[in-house]
């Protein structure tokens, strides 16, 4: 037995003292759901999964890991799509998953400031439920709302369907509390929108993917809740028409809340796996789902904006009632799990300048066909962010050719290799190509200063 191995009982003992003995899971069966990611592409083994319920307990867990030289893998709902939330398959040190899901309290909403403070393990769905009836809503929404946590969404700077309107997670952050690599706690949650007292740590932690600190609490900005909504599903000739139509609707209806794109092959897959009826009698090349909110029912306004688009529209269906809207939304939101049901996908989440989205969508299918002729490609995404999710089925999980072709094309077209999912372990090889050596050196310097022993999520972002 090596010296490091003899230390394991001591480490587990300290973790049990910190979080409480039942909250340190060492049994393989109990660890399993924390060790494989949502896509099933990424998997690794932890010596334990620890589930602290308070900030002080997180601090004690991190301090214990640091002293034992163990890696800390922060985890929220484990819905991340780039492999950063589960242990690494090959690791130089022991790995401890720190699950924040027991940190679930929501403080009373501040109705004057339009802000709320929540613990990191609160799911987006739980926050949305808490806000109901308050006159406020949260400015970020995404399909994984029932599992994704606020801490995970901060760590990935999640975008979602409303980013073009309210900004990504970073734009909702007023303050954070977080545990640093040495176990100390930074805490600034006073609810001060204006606070120019040096470096803005919430911005630094947004998108840091668990490599700089474990987020334990956040002060969030809220947006006014407009109670009525209408959704249109519009059949169009292709992605260029979807972009033009979304732009037209946005200019006419400032309360546009979502503009989502998908294609006929994706719709067919969703209907196969999730059931439901075809929205139109005929198949069409592409579809734009647009949602508008208002104080009064906005269905007529939305219908007018779509009618005004004339020949851009091949067909359209509208819904102003809850059931009808949900029926149309599920055609878009069930894409991710329908693709997953077919196999382990290569998930590439790129963005290009909006005006190039159509050209990218055409070019990427061609590029993938050249690299992997038997692959099946499904595209969907958030039109007004220029953000397309490229899902490729067929090539084995460890085959990098398709990833290289897609990400290389995104960079060539002035885009980014990650619009909203992050770099994780899936795209570490692309950080420098995308951001440049100077940016990466600056990021590395920050990482080394805050986490000199490299215990926080090693392998993520920098490889
Ligand atoms: C069906 C589906 C739809 C999705 N749609 C979208 C979408 O529209 N937009 C979008 O942006 N994403 C989307 N995602 C991806 C995912 O939901 C987001 O990345 C989400 O922010 C992850 O939250 P989580 O709590 O599950 O984090 P996890 O998956 O647990 O972790 C993600 C990363 O954050 C780190 N982390 C987690 N918690 C903390 C913490 N408290 N402190 C520090 N680091 C932490 C982890 O180490 C990891 O690197 C989708 C995923 C699914 C499955």
What is the secondary structure topology, with strand pairs?
Blueprint: H1 3-6, H2 8-19, E1 24-25, H3 28-35, E2 48-50, H4 55-68, E3 71-75, E4 95-99, E5 115-119, H5 124-131, E6 136-137, H6 150-156, H7 163-166, E7 173-179, E8 185-188, H8 201-205, E9 214-221, E10 223-224, E11 228-236, H9 239-252, E12 256-263, H10 264-274, E13 286-294, H11 299-308, E14 315-319, H12 322-333, H13 335-342, E15 346-351, H14 357-371, E16 376-382, E17 387-393, H15 401-412, H16 431-435, H17 437-450
Parallel strand pairs: 2-4, 3-4
Antiparallel strand pairs: 1-2, 5-9, 6-10, 7-8, 7-9, 11-13, 11-14, 12-13, 12-16, 15-17, 16-17
What does this structure look like?
This protein is an alpha+beta fold and 463 residues long. The chain is 35% helix and 20% strand. It contains 17 helices and 17 strands. Strands 14-11-13-12-16-17-15 form a 7-stranded antiparallel β-sheet, sandwiched between helices. A hairpin with a 5-residue loop joins β7 (173-179) and β8 (185-188). α9 (239-252) runs antiparallel to α14 (357-371) and α10 (264-274) crosses α13. The mean pLDDT is 96. The protein binds flavin-adenine dinucleotide. Flavin-adenine dinucleotide is lined by residues 38, 73-81, 84-85, 100, 120, 142-144, 147-149, 151-153, 155-156, 158-160, 209-210, 214-215, 336-337, 420-421, 457, 460.
């Amino acid at each position: 037995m090596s010296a490091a191995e003899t230390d394991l009982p001591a480490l587990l003992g300290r973790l049990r003292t910190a979080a409480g003995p039942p909250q340190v899971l060492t049994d393989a069966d109990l660890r399993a759901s924390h060790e494989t990611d949502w896509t099933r592409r990424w998997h690794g083994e932890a010596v334990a999964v620890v589930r602290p319920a308070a900030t002080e307990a997180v601090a004690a867990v991190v301090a214990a890991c640091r002293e034992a030289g163990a890696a800390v893998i922060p985890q929220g709902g484990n819905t991340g799509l780039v492999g950063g939330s589960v242990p690494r398959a090959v690791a130089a040190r022991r790995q401890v998953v720190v699950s924040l899901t027991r940190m679930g309290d929501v403080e009373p909403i501040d109705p004057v400031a339009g802000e709320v403070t929540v613990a990191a393990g609160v799911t987006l769905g739980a926050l949305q439920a808490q806000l109901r009836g308050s006159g406020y809503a949260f400015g970020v929404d995404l399909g994984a709302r029932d599992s994704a946590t606020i801490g995970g969404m901060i760590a990935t700077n999640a975008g979602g369907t409303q980013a073009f309107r309210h900004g990504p997670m970073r734009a909702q952050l007023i303050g954070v509390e977080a545990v640093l690599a040495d176990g100390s706690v930074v805490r600034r949650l006073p609810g001060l929108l204006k606070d120019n007292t040096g470096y803005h740590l919430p911005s630094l932690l947004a998108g840091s993917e668990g490599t700089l600190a474990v987020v334990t609490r956040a002060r969030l900005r809220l947006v006014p809740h407009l109670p009525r909504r209408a959704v249109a599903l519009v059949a169009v000739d292709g992605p260029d028409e979807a972009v033009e139509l979304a732009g037209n609707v946005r200019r006419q209806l400032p309360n546009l809340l979502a503009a989502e794109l998908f294609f006929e092959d994706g719709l067919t897959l969703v209907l196969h796996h999730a059931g439901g009826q075809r929205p139109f009698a005929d198949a069409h090349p592409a579809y734009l789902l647009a949602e508008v909110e208002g104080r009064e029912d906005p269905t007529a306004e939305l219908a007018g904006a779509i009618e005004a688009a004339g020949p851009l529209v091949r067909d359209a269906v509208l819904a102003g009632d809850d059931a009808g809207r949900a029926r149309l939304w599920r055609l878009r939101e069930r894409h991710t799990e329908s693709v997953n049901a077919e196999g382990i996908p290569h998930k590439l989440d790129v963005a290009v300048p909006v005006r190039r989205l159509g050209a990218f969508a055409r070019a990427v299918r061609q590029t993938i066909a050249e690299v992997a002729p038997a692959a099946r490609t499904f595209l969907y995404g958030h039109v007004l962010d220029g953000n397309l999710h490229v899902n490729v089925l067929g090539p084995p999980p460890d085959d990098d050719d398709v990833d290289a072709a897609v990400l290389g094309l995104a960079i060539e077209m002035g885009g980014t290799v990650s619009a909203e999912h992050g770099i994780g372990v899936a795209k570490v090889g692309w950080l420098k190509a995308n951001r440049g050596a100077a940016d990466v050196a600056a990021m590395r310097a920050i990482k080394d200063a805050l986490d000199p022993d490299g215990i926080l999520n090693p392998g993520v972002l920098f490889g």
